[in-house]
Amino acid sequence: MAEKPPGQDPAHPAPASLPKPEGNPALRMMGLPRFKFKLPSRNWLIFWAITGSFTSTLLYDRHHKKRAQRKWCNFVSHLAEEPVPPAVMPRKITIFLAAPPGDSLRPARDYFHEYIKPILVAGGMDWEVIEGRKEGDVRAGLAEKIRKLRKRSGEKPAAESAEEPEEKENSDDLRYEVRKRSGVTEWDGVQGDLVLGRHTWKEYIRGLHEGWLGPLVPPRPAEALETETQPLPTSTSDTRPVDSPPKTPSTSEAASDSPPQTEPPTPDPPPPKPAKATPKPPYITPEDYPTCPTAPSLPTSLNPSLPLHLPHVLGFLNTPTRIYRFLTRRHLADSTGRSVAALVLASHSRPYIQSAEFASAIDPDFVPSDTNNAPEGAVTQTGEAWEQEAILKEEEREWSKTAWAPNKEDEKTKERPWLERMVIDSRIGQKMSQFELESGAAEEAVKVDKEKRMQDPSLVDRIRRWTGFEKGEKKGWDMGLEGWDDE
Amino acid sequence: MDGLNASEQREFQGRMEKKQMKEFMTMYSNLVQRCFDDCVNDFTTKSLHAKEEGCVMKCVDKYLKGSERLGQRFQEQNAAMMQSGQLPGR
């Protein structure tokens, strides 16, 4: 074997003498370069691994978020197909939105648009929004709404306060009048309130109490003047030890209907209030609840409510939390969709309960935030607490630090419903209820979604129609855009 | 309108009636045109199919109810305008 015949040489070339033709000889002959598959460099690997995993996680999440939303939209969409008589307004839901602590209104609005609105639209709902830019706005808005409702149902304000000028009729009142005359009625059934986030929930509860327990007209400013003339430290330490702002009416009342500060209230220079929109001061404080009579027009049950979790966390160090949430929005979409579907269907609601377990849930981490608000008050120390107080409690841990800051010196009297403990009067508390889905609704939703998707033409079907493979139909590209075929 | 004498009043009334009639006829012919275009698409017989008939019924119903609702909203807007003396939403 040492000496080979020369004729066999091309078949078995000596490895050392001739370089082995690499790859496919045909490709070689065509002059294509040799493809050699090898891993990219370490740095490229790292780059692609990070980018790719992030992108794929994101796409996966958004895909499933869409599916979850479509599921709940399909679950309620049968409601949108029921015709409403022309003389009846559609069902109207009240949305309560407030800027999260330490941030602007934007995140709350975005959350509403992203997760809640699609389902409301799918269910054919109408809605109005009570927005709050500052602490107390939602409370004031809701209380005002309830007072209007009370006036419309025939309640007359107490005679003593005739000095309050009749409020200018706005377009809302006018519309109400016109509708009443022409026989247009409101939706006959539950309407529902949707409350976004713990801070809004706290204000909502307070507004509810103020609306139904408070007077129809603002308390007389005489009282306010009295507190105003006293230096602030004494007024906080007088008869009312547990106090939120002592009778706030003074500030904006003076700002709104009298020329700025005609009477000299305090020795210190009266700060001419900058024209910032402050919420209307509360008519009653939580300490007054037990002594207030309920409104005669208080219904036997209030509108059921739906407190929703508003995930919102600020701060640089919380970036990992935010990234995690950014990549797992499908769960949020699903749980929010589920709750909103319960509201839209409105088939089932349960009253809130009162129990000791909520008290224990509330108390241990109750922060006595402000020197003004002593926690051990006359409030509820019975050992039992309302369920409403514990709802979304965990959100408070994520509030920005600025939310807990005590009032600044120049605005001592600002109300702080977010910081103070919720006070629930049992007359109101037992009339509230919460929307709930019936058990088995989740499985039902999956089934409905599947059925509806079967009815929809799939992508393949649409492509077939467009390209004209479907028999007996005009080709899609021949018809112009969809819906234009009449013209 | 107050400064008119009896014959002018009559004339005015007549014109208004004519105008209203015209408006009504326009609406009616629009309605017929729309629903015919949308629903009637088979000309092999002279009678309406059951499907077409149902479609026409629904179409007319939708159109009328829709314009009723629209009219109500316009009325409200009108009232708001009368009160504030300007266009609403400004």
From TrEMBL, chain A:
The keyword Transmembrane helix applies. It is found in: Mitochondrion inner membrane. Residues 261-284 have a biased composition (Pro residues). It comes from the Eukaryota. The keyword Translocase does not apply. InterPro entries: Mt_import_IM_translocase_Tim54 (IPR021056). Keywords: Membrane, Mitochondrion, Mitochondrion inner membrane, Protein transport, Translocation, Transmembrane, Transmembrane helix, Transport. Residues 228-239 have a biased composition (Polar residues). Its main location: mitochondrion. Residues 161-170 have a biased composition (Acidic residues). Residues 1-23, 149-175, 228-298 are annotated as: Disordered. It is a single-pass membrane protein. Residues 149-158 have a biased composition (Basic and acidic residues). Belongs to the TIM54 family. This is Mitochondrial import inner membrane translocase subunit TIM54. It comes from Stereocaulon virgatum.
From TrEMBL, chain B:
Its main location: mitochondrion. The keyword Secreted does not apply. Residues 15-76 form the Tim10-like domain. It is a peripheral membrane protein. It is found in: Mitochondrion inner membrane. The keyword Lipid biosynthesis does not apply. Keywords: Chaperone, Disulfide bond, Membrane, Metal-binding, Mitochondrion, Mitochondrion inner membrane, Protein transport, Translocation, Transport, Zinc. Gene3D superfamilies: Mitochondrial import inner membrane translocase subunit tim13 like domains (1.10.287.810). Heterohexamer. Belongs to the small Tim family. The twin CX3C motif contains 4 conserved Cys residues that form 2 disulfide bonds in the mitochondrial intermembrane space. This is Mitochondrial import inner membrane translocase subunit. It comes from Stereocaulon virgatum. The lineage of its organism: Eukaryota, Fungi, Dikarya, Ascomycota, Pezizomycotina.
